[in-house]
Amino acid sequence: MIHSFAAAMSNPIQNTSSFTSGTWNLLDPRNSSPVRIPEQQPIAVSPWDIAFCVTGTIISCENAIVIAILFYTPTLRAPMYILIGSLAFADTLAGLGLILNFIFTYMLNTEFVTLISVGLLISAFSASVLNILAITVDRYLSLYNALTYHTERAVTFTYVIVALIWFVCIALGLLPLLGWNCLRDESSCSICRPVTKNNAVALAVTFLLIFALMMQLYLQICKIAFRHAQQIAVQHHFMAISTTKGVSTLSAILCTFAICWIPFAMYSIVADSSYPIIYTYATVLPATCNSVINPIIYAYRNPDIQKSLRLACCGCIPTNFSLRPRTSSDV
Q1: Which of 12, 37, 188, 316 would you label with 245, given CA atoms 20 to 30 Å apart?
Q2: Nearest residue to 296 via CA among 58, 112, 77
Q3: Hey, which bits of 207-249 come out as E strands?
Q4: C-alpha span between 307 and 141 (Å, rounded)
Q5: Which residue, among 286, 259, 289, 297, has the nearest Cα to 139 in the 3D structure?
Q6: pLDDT 10s per residue in the chain (331 long)?
Q7: Which residue(s) pair with 25 in the sheet?
Q8: 243 burial class (0-12, 13-18, 19+ CB within 10 angstroms)?
Q9: Cβ–Cβ contacts within 10 Å for residue 247, how many?
């Protein structure tokens, strides 16, 4: 059972140390009476936990490839690639967190490792959401300040933003270890045990505010794109097609993000640890799947990353590949 983002209302293996009566009869040398030797009851593994572990494996592999491509390609150092790399690193940690949570739950179930697992998942998924927001802001700035976007100052500013994101997320992940948990008071638990109900609500409300900000930024991006299309009369037909495609892409990004995260955020606000755990699993799994989709949306669709991936795999580049410089709006 996932103790954090697939949080449990109760520990699925809390009775693993209990034993059922065995069927072996041995003779006690002192009184020759039969002695029953207890045998350990096998642990039942939840199919949901298996699904989370498999999802975590897919997430880790997908995003590790993105990190490797960005690391070994010196030309991919623009602000948008820095943010894509930070997002991939966050999602990789999220995937590893899901795998470790499965291992800890069924093999090393102690209070300390539970808090470690919770902290890792909170930090990783929080960083994933904030990096998506940072990519949205980057896209907006690349259109609004197109002339100064590729300056050294923009790159430095991006590194500062990434450092700030990780500082905040690591701090959030440390809160359960520092005592902000419900292990001593089960009645205060949220659906994300051992996160308290108040903390879970605060995280969910913050997420909804981030989503609202992303919607506003993407709306401004669409307005700027349409304005640019109208100003270029010579390429009007080309720009109209390009702009329409861009709006469709942005809509797909927002819809995917909303479908994955909003159900879990809303459920975290209205529910607590007394609600059936099946609903928790059903809302958490789509949220984790967002980290499966992220590298497809933000990395593998990018032509420069596609080029580096082809070079790494087979050393070939398609003949129709364009070498023009790309901006964040192309991601």
Answers
A1: 316
A2: 58
A3: none
A4: 25
A5: 297
A6: 454 444 443 344 444 333 333 333 333 444 444 445 445 566 788 899 999 999 999 999 999 999 999 999 888 888 899 999 999 999 999 999 999 999 988 888 788 888 999 999 999 999 999 999 999 998 888 888 766 676 767 888 999 999 999 999 999 999 999 888 888 888 888 898 889 999 999 999 999 999 999 999 999 988 887 777 676 645 555 555 555 666 677 888 889 999 999 999 999 999 988 899 999 999 999 999 999 999 999 999 888 898 888 887 876 555 444 444 455 544 4
A7: 36
A8: middle
A9: 15
257 phi-psi bin (left φ>0, alpha ψ -120 to 50, beta other): alpha
Q: Output the pTM of the full model.
A: 0.81
Instruction: Tell the residue number behind the tokens 């209205």, with chain if given.
Output: 270
- Among 106, 284, 51, CA closest to 190: 284
User: Degrees (nearest 5) of the Cα angle 24, 29, 31?
Assistant: 95
The pair of structure tokens assigned to 280 is: 């928790």
Nearest CA to 261 out of 299, 224, 287 is that of: 287
Retrieve residue 111's tokens: 């209070």
Phi-psi region of 315 (alpha: psi -120 to 50; beta: other; left: phi over 0): left
> What is each CA distance from 171 to 92, 102, 199, in whole angstroms?
19, 23, 13
Closest C-alpha to 293, from 327, 264, 260, 263: 260
Instruction: Output the six-digit token pair for 220.
Output: 């401004």
Q: Which three-class secondary structure state does DSSP give residue 146?
A: coil
From the number of C-beta atoms within 10 Å of its C-beta (0-12, 13-18, 19+), residue 74 rates as exposed
Bridge partners of residue 19, in order along the sequence: 40
Residue 133 backbone phi and psi in degrees, to 5: -60, -45
Whole-number Å distance between alpha carbons of 62 and 64: 6
